[in-house]
């Protein structure tokens, strides 16, 4: 799966969980500071990524990811391994 | 008034002598207790009390069963077996008593005896009827309790006798017990509403006098029955309600040896446990109890409360297996017995804290809001109730504790996010102001983690 496909999937999840239009989201944006994710939403984002990409992530590592780009890189490790 | 100066310390003083976290807190005394009884000032030394052979006796299968639908034979045998393990090899739970009147009563007794436990010893309970000794003898029981009501309420209005007739009739039954080679245990019903000087003491003195004619192992025992829960533990309280005075008069003026004296209370005024422990300290060696306090009306001294009191007084487990308390509670629930969520030691919420600030305390050091090491002694870690302040961490903690998951089996926050969302929505969407109950959370586990819930249910049924 290439990076653009992963980014599209990540944006779908962001849109669904945070209820925002994710088309303009940049990879540098932070889930909490820029996109406004609250504590429970951070966990919901991770659960959404797992479901979208049919993967199971390490919880501590996943929740330490701060940005959209970081999430794409992190997910890429799972889907392309 | 002496000025008290602040003493700064380098290390916190946690009062370890009393609050050794690995045990229930010690019950320590600064010195003797004094009680004015008639024209005497009587000194009671708690150290002397602790040097006596204090024991717990049980009436779960007699008084405890009078207050509920009967247990099956299998249930009683299972509870008896667990009770033996709870009390341990030193016989902290020394005796338990059974009915003998039905086939099931007798089968229960036989099957309990067949387990081969040394403790609790099996005794029986009969009405004050000479014919009943045949049952006791046939059951091979060496000691039986018998009704010997002591108040005029009972003597005049229930038995329709006068004092002399009751006095003689009871003694006749006691003599019949001795003739049958059975140790009589006279249950002085309603003693906290009786004329102590005018009836109770004369009866007890005569009983002790006649006991001298019997072999020591058959000497009569006395059970002081606080039938209506009127007993009072406070120093200075008057007879017949004063437990210190009543117990002292039995041992001193009545001549009853400590090891022949037992307290049996009822909880009509919320005094049942402390009254029982008071009787221990002032001269009764035996405290009669029922599991979780189930008994006639408001119940009896709770067995598990007496166990914790015993440990607190002695400062050690003395062979007691405290884990059995939880196992017995789980078993009672499995057979349909309700135990209130806030019931001490075994209720589902007994060590659950709800306030967010308490939860923070628990997370930093559980000793702040937990009574003792309930994980080590009960297998029950302290818990936090769930509110909007608890967060996903708290929800994950609750779910894992509820499902009994440990180590790598514990569910991550990601696995419980739907439950956490449901919790948050209760407050943010529905405007809820109260904590989420365990029942609601269990329902959410059932909905959102159906496989895990099914495994949990199967484990409960098997256990």
What does it look like?
- The complex is a heterodimer of chains A (81) and B (463).
- With 81 residues, chain A is mostly helical.
- The model of chain A has no long low-confidence stretch (mean pLDDT 92).
- Chain A has helices at residues 3-18, 39-53, 59-63, 68-79.
- Chain A is globular.
- With 463 residues, chain B is an alpha/beta fold.
- Chain B has 18 helices and twelve strands.
- Chain B has helices at 46-51, 63-66, 73-87, 103-114, 133-138, 152-158, 163-179, 196-211, 243-253, 272-282, 303-314, 323-334, 356-364, 374-378, 391-403, 417-428, 438-448, 450-462; strands spanning 33-37, 40-44, 55-58, 93-98, 121-126, 143-147, 183-188, 221-225, 261-264, 286-289, 352-353, 383-384.
- In chain B, strands 3-4-5-6-7-8-9-10 form an eight-stranded parallel beta barrel, surrounded by six helices. In chain B, strands 1-2 form a two-stranded antiparallel sheet.
- In chain B, β1 (33-37) and β2 form a beta hairpin.
- The longest helix of chain B has 17 residues, at 163-179.
- Chain B is globular and about 75 Å long.
- The termini of chain B are far apart.
- The relative contact order of chain B is 0.10.
Helix content of chain A: 55-70%
What global shape of chain A is seen?
globular
Proportion of β residues of chain A?
under 5%
The major sheet of chain A is characterized as: none
Largest sheet of chain B: 8 strands, parallel, barrel
N-to-C SSE series of chain A?
Answer: HHHH
* Average pLDDT for all residues of chain B: 94
- Helix and strand string of chain B, N-terminal first? EEHEHHEHEHEHHEHEHEHEHHEHHEHHHH
Q: Give me the secondary-structure category of chain A.
A: mainly alpha
* Contiguous runs where pLDDT drops below 50 for at least 5 residues of chain A: none
How many beta-strand segments of chain B?
Answer: 12
Overall outline of chain B: globular
Oligomer: heterodimer
How many helices of chain A in DSSP terms?
A: 4
Name the biggest interface: A-B, 11 and 10 residues
* Total E-strand runs of chain A: 0
Please tell me how large the radius of gyration of chain A is.
Answer: 11 Å
Structural class of chain B: alpha/beta
Estimate percent helicity of chain B. Answer: 40-55%
